[in-house]
Amino acid sequence: MLLPRQPILKPVLPFVDKFIKELLPRNVVVITGTIPSAAKKFEINLALGINYQDNAQRSPIAFHFNPRFDQNYTARNTFQNGWGPEESNSPNSIFPFYRGQTFEIKILIAPASYMVTVNDQLYVQYNHRIPYQRVNTLQVLGDVIVDRIVLQDGSSNYSEEMSRPFSTPITAMTYNLAVPFETEIAGGQMREGTTICMSGRPNQAANKFTVDLFFGGQYGRAGNVGFHISVRFAERSIVRNTNINGSWGQEERDMFKFPFEPNTNFKMKIICESTQFVVFVNGQYLCNYRHRLSYTQIDRLRVEGDVFVRSLMFKYML
């Protein structure tokens, strides 16, 4: 049985073992090992049973993580009466596994998703399709040599050795996003120290674009907006506000200089501090905005309007 903080050393594959208790948010499954020189693929499954054979009796899999070396990508999926739609790497992502080299994989159970780091760099995020509370088994199969498996329990009394890898900033980046778009805040929620870096270019005939940090609401429609930024070119103003239960508060517009121009590249940085958001554009301070609701409730970001987003990066602490 997989016990919190009790490592399993050099297990024989296929490895199939049950968790002794229900998974909880901030549990972390850590697997270290080596990729054989002739490896083709391996898989890590957070499953709802021990049957890993590819047949009608196969146990459901909440999270299937499947690096494939001939194709240089990692498939992610869920198995429940058949495979669901597969998720794989974006063309700009880096395949972090190399034949003949060691690795360390961490799978963090977050409230809304699994978050996977490889060698301390955030690699993929996978939204739950089956409640993580139903997962009871870890399966490791295929072309991989496993040195160590350990379940970190997420408690405040981690040993220093276990907590160290998640005490450093983790980065998640995506590229060339079609607007409008909406995404989960990396890490599952806004927290003190979260930094959002967005680069892009307003359209040639831009009228306005908006950035919303929010929670609740349906996809494509923001709910409670903790921080609303509206860049308005005709007015050459940047309006900031908060929307609580459908009602907008008092606008803030003061700033030193309007830093955006149509068809001109920009870089925007939004930093969450304990009492306020601080915004920089092209390395210059733009404004600060005091929190009007608890920033820890914010779990999504939405961008829409007359802008092309070249890249979006989250930096945050776990």
Automatic annotation (TrEMBL):
The protein's matches in SMART domains, at most eight in alphabetical order, are given as: Gal-bind_lectin (SM00908), GLECT (SM00276)
Give one Pfam family: Gal-bind_lectin
Could you tell me which residue ranges the Galectin domain spans? 15-152, 182-315
Q: Which InterPro entries match?
A: ConA-like_dom_sf (IPR013320), Galectin-like (IPR044156), Galectin_CRD (IPR001079)
Q: Does the keyword Oxidoreductase apply?
A: no
Q: Could you identify this protein by its name?
A: Galectin
What's in the keyword line of the UniProt record?
Lectin, Repeat
The record, for CDD domains, names: GLECT
Which GO terms label this protein's molecular function in UniProt?
Answer: carbohydrate binding
Please tell me the species this chain comes from: Strigamia maritima
What start-end ranges are recorded for coiled-coil regions in this protein? none
**UniProt keyword Repeat, yes or no:** yes
